[in-house]
Amino acid sequence: MLAKGSEPWLFTAASVTALIAILSRAMDSSPLNHVAYIGVALTFFMVVFFRDPERKVEISDTYMISPADGTVIDIRDRKICIFMFFQNVHVNRAPISGKITEITYKKGGYLPAYRKDSERNERNEFIIHSKYGDVSVTQIAGAIARRIVSYSSVNDIIEQGQRIGMIRFGSRVDVTIPPDLDITVRKGERVIAGKTVIATIKNDREF
Description:
The chain is α+β, with helices and mostly antiparallel strands. The chain has helices at about 5-25, 30-50; strands at about 65, 70-75, 80-85, 90-95, 100-105, 125-130, 135-140, 150, 155-160, 165, 170-175, 180-185, 190, 195-200. It contains two helices and 14 strands.
C-alpha cells in the first residue's frame, strides 16, 4: 500500500523515466540508457519510501503509542522527539484516541530536523483532546522535505493508531505526554508508529 499524497511524486518519476526510456530506444543512445536506469532506480526508491504498510493496532486507554517510525532523539519537558530517517515509513499515526480540537500549520525553513533550531522549520501541529487531557503531535519538515500532508481535520474523532498525516522525506515528529502517564521510552530507542508503547498510565492512577 502506498501513502496517500504520494501520487504526484510517483507519477512524475515514472513518467519522466518512461519518456527517457522511449527516447533512448528511439535514438539508440547509451547516455540516455544510463539516465533511464537511474530513473528506474529513483522510481523504485519512491515506491519504497512512500510505502504505507497495514498494521494491527492494539487500542487501549492505558497507554500511548508512537506516532512515527524512527529514533527517539530527545525527551524533554514531557515531550518525546522522534526523528524519521529515509528508510522509515513516513506516515504518522494518532498516539491516543480522542478529538482533534486544533490544527495549526506554520511555514518555515528546512533545517535538518534533528537540530534544536529546527523549531523554525515548516510544521503542522495537531491538538488531540483525550481522556487524559490535550496531546500535541507536531510534524516538522526536514532539510529535504518540502511539504507536510494532513489526513485529518478539526473536530475529527480519531482512534489510537489511525493515520493522521505524512511528511515527505527526512523529518521529525514531537509528541507531548500528559501528566497522568509515565514515559517508557529512552533517548536513542527505535520506535514503530502504531506499535511501540511510549507512555503508560501511572500506577497510582485511580479509574
